[in-house]
Amino acid sequence: MDSQNSVVEQQIRPDDLMGELGIKKDAYYAYLKYLNLKAEKDLNGNAFLTEVQANLVRALRSHVQETGKMEGFLNSNGELAVSEGASLLDADIPMEEPGDRYGDDQLNDLIRAAAELKGQQLVMPQLVIRELAQRMTYEDLPEDIKAKVENVRESASPKYQPAQLATNLLNQWRDRQSQMQAA
Questions:
Q1: 77 vs 13, residue with greater confidence
Q2: 180 in a domain, yes or no?
Q3: Which is more confident, 148 or 109?
Q4: I want to staple 107 with a disulfide (CB 3.0 to 4.6 A). Which of 9, 44, 102, 151 is the partner?
Q5: Range of the domain at 127
């Protein structure tokens, strides 16, 4: 018997969960995508969620009903945010004993998902800083940075007029040429 199938899981069908939560397919699939969940398939090829997956969707739905948005359901550390007075442990999620229950593909998928989440955590501050910078104006800058900007602007803009300089140089050359011809 396959070790993956040795544990009997409760299979929650998408239609049942959508009916329970009062949501349509668009919202259901948006929740799955946000949670990075993929429905399992039974032997007949019918999609289902495990109880743990369904509880995550339920918790996200509750968060959306409270806040009006999915954002904030995962906190900045990538952990599930929990509403006041609530806990995911209250959701009657069956706890599995630790052990070698993940196949190579599942383990690789978990590691990949964790690496992607960590990558997001690492770049998020820089992305926020970039967005802040794009929205700032010169007037938002502190005085020391304004001084640096002014120094760069002054050094980048010439203090002479190229056209005027060219005219002066050409006139000097013409004067020398006239003097040489007159002599």
A1: 13
A2: no
A3: 148
A4: 102
A5: 117-157
Phi then psi for residue 141, to 5 deg, are -75, 145
> Looking at the 3D structure of the chain, how many domains does it have?
2
Measure the CA–CA gap between 53 and 92, rounded to whole angstroms.
12
Residues 123 and 34 in one domain: no
pLDDT tens, residue by residue, 29-58? 998 888 888 888 888 888 888 888 888 889
148: left (phi over 0), alpha (psi -120 to 50) or beta: alpha
Q: What is the CA 178 to chain-centroid distance, rounded?
A: 72
CA distance 15 to 54: 12
Least confident of 92-101, 113-122, 128-137, 160-169: 92-101
Domain-located, residue 176: no
